[in-house]
TrEMBL record:
It holds the Pfam family YccF. This is Inner membrane protein YccF. InterPro entries: Inner_membrane_protein, UCP028777, YccF. Keywords: Cell inner membrane, Cell membrane, Membrane, Transmembrane, Transmembrane helix. Residues 4-54, 69-119 form the Inner membrane component domain. It is a multi-pass membrane protein. The chain crosses the membrane at residues 7-35, 72-104. GO terms for cellular component: plasma membrane. It is found in: Cell inner membrane.
Length: 126
């Protein structure tokens, strides 16, 4: 089911969204200060490509002072806009019965888009 969901997701907007994150991340990596944020944007791009069958996992060192500072900077500059876009996408998709599984994937991506430092998107083990 995850494979079929990911294929449909890519066809109907996931590919464009993921490429947008990756292109934005590459743009951020052009500056020395933007490299950590660019890497997180690229990580989000790959997470957006295949969200079905994966979950957000918090790492052991997720709340170190540096990661907290980076998460606050990310939240103020980029995170709230990305989370709002996922929320609006979920709101539009949940209107139809067919779109509900895809809306749930957008909602699953919101915590990762708000606080990407110290979190990963990993496959769910049955």
């Amino acid at each position: 089911m995850s494979l079929l969901g990911n294929i449909i997701w890519l066809i109907f907007g996931g590919l464009i969204a993921g490429l947008g994150y990756i292109v934005g991340g590459i743009g951020l990596c052009l500056t020395v200060i933007g490299i950590p944020f660019g890497l997180q944007s690229i990580k989000l791009g790959f997470a957006v490509f295949t969200p079905f069958g994966k979950a957000v996992v918090e790492l052991d060192q997720a709340n170190t002072p540096l990661r907290i500072i980076f998460n606050v900077i990310w939240l103020v500059l980029f995170g709230w806009e990305i989370a709002l876009a996922h929320l609006l996408g979920a709101g539009l998709l949940v209107i139809t019965i067919i779109g509900i599984p895809f809306a749930l994937q957008h909602i699953k991506l919101i915590p990762l888009s708000l606080f990407p430092f110290g979190r990963e998107f990993r496959p769910i083990r049955p």
